Amino acid sequence: MEVVYINNSKVLAECKPEPCVMAVGFFDGVHLGHKKIIEKAKEIAQVKKLTFAVMTFFPHPSQVIETDRKVISYLSPLPSKMEIFSQLGVEKLYIVKFDKNFSELSDQDFVNQYLKGLMCKHVVAGFDFTYGFKGKGNMEKLKNVGTGFFDVTTIPKIQYKQEKISSSMIRKLLESGLVSEIPHYLGDYYRVSCLVKSMERGDADNNFIFKAQIDQDYFLPKPGIYKIQIKFNETFYNGLCNITNKTLKPYLFDGVIDGLDRIAEKNNVQLRFIEQLLDQPVAAAYDLFSRTVI
Ligand SMILES: Cc1cc2nc3c(=O)[nH]c(=O)nc-3n(C[C@H](O)[C@H](O)[C@H](O)COP(=O)(O)O)c2cc1C
Ligand SMILES: Nc1ncnc2c1ncn2[C@@H]1O[C@H](COP(=O)(O)OP(=O)(O)OP(=O)(O)O)[C@@H](O)[C@H]1O
């Protein structure tokens, strides 16, 4: 996957565009609604024999625009989002810096400079996609202004239990500790990548006790005790993890892993949240862990 960072219209002019089918959106978490959009763009690109591209923005628009709900941590921080896009077969990823200047670009200028400028022949986005200053552009307008330049495909609302699947909904579930519900929205357990700081045999049952550091850009579940899996070298290990102080930066997890003797310190692992066991962290975590059957 080729990654192109666009910081302003000058850098945009230096891009070497190629005719493409483009999925557009912020796509935090790349949930089931987002996946439908990306899969549709891929399918159209194959049929039309064009490059399969995605355009996303960074940071989240709420960090630049006045809103009551600022998104400061992510379900998929940029490196994780890039990995997911690459796994979904995206050929070209445009990452547009969302700054004050960009936010004030009119909807017409965004279409002319960015979508037409990057040689989009087909744009795919969801039913509620908005763009341009004050979010004045929508899918209806996009179809009109694209006539003669690009086609537009709108993905209808993807729902679970009669509600729109959204990144905000997944954040709410994490804030409530309801991690076991998340696969219905994400298509998989909520996962974060982290760096193992220490791993030693520690408790009475000879389980491994680990401490791991997580990138501070990740949105974390409510403090508490969680059943987890650690993925390392394509193998999943069951365990428990204690999330304590959410304000601690960088975050440190500690926990117990069952029968794990291959992960050494300084390894990057993927941690998946399976189920909340206790809705508050415990001070003497190891005591609790050693008494709990993993
Ligand atoms: C050029 C441009 C300017 C934007 N300006 C604003 C803005 O002034 N106010 C706002 O609330 N959102 C603005 N947005 C954000 C969009 O409304 C929207 O959140 C963004 O395009 C991501 O779409 P998505 O949230 O559907 O993924 C702008 C987006 C673009 C592409
Ligand atoms: N459930 C859904 N069904 C269809 N399209 C969706 C769905 N959720 C998001 N989209 C589309 O995905 C793209 C990215 O949207 P966005 O990143 O705002 O997702 P979101 O889940 O709505 O986020 P948030 O909850 O933060 O508003 C947009 O084109 C949007 O219309």
From TrEMBL:
Q: Which residues form the signal peptide?
A: none
FAD synthetase domain ranges (all copies): 16-168
**Keyword Cytoplasm among UniProt keywords:** no
Any one Gene Ontology BP term: FAD biosynthetic process
User: What InterPro entries has UniProt attached to this entry?
Assistant: Cyt_trans-like, FAD_synthase, Riboflavin_kinase, Rossmann-like_a/b/a_fold
Q: Name one Pfam family in it.
A: FAD_syn
One function term, GO molecular function aspect: riboflavin kinase activity
Q: In which pathway does it act?
A: Cofactor biosynthesis; FAD biosynthesis; FAD from FMN: step 1/1
Q: Which reaction does it catalyse?
A: FMN + ATP + H(+) = FAD + diphosphate
Q: Per the record's keyword annotation, is Flavoprotein included, yes or no?
A: yes
| SUPFAM superfamilies named in the record | Nucleotidylyl transferase
**Keywords assigned by UniProt, alphabetized:** ATP-binding, FAD, Flavoprotein, FMN, Nucleotide-binding, Nucleotidyltransferase, Transferase
> What does the record give as EC number?
2.7.7.2
Which NCBIfam families does UniProt cross-reference here?
Answer: cyt_tran_rel
Query: Its family?
Result: Belongs to the RibF family.
What name appears for this protein in its UniProt entry? Answer: FAD synthase
Record the organism: Aeribacillus pallidus
